[in-house]
Specification:
This protein is α+β, with helices and mostly antiparallel strands. It contains two helices and six strands. The termini are close together.
């Protein structure tokens, strides 16, 4: 099963400007499955926008990537 990223467009409560925010990651076999997941689970306000391939955390206390702790979703899906 793949994970898909979502976005949410909402008015910022601080400045009143319409902004785009990252939404939750949602599961699905295909892009359409991820969209259906959003509809069925009360996330209809989210727009599915891409396939999540990997996550690379930062080293603690920095903005430097920690490649040793990368989560590669392509390798996970092959198991």
């Amino acid at each position: 099963m793949n994970l898909y990223t979502t976005i949410i467009k909402a008015i910022c409560p601080n400045d009143g400007i319409l902004k785009t925010y990252g939404g939750p990651n949602v599961p699905g076999i295909t892009f359409k499955d991820a969209e259906m997941y959003c509809e069925i689970n009360g996330l209809g306000y989210c727009k599915v926008d891409g396939l999540l391939i990997s996550e690379i955390p930062c080293k603690e206390g920095t903005f430097e990537p920690d490649w040793d702790n990368e989560i590669d979703y392509n390798k996970i899906n092959l198991n």
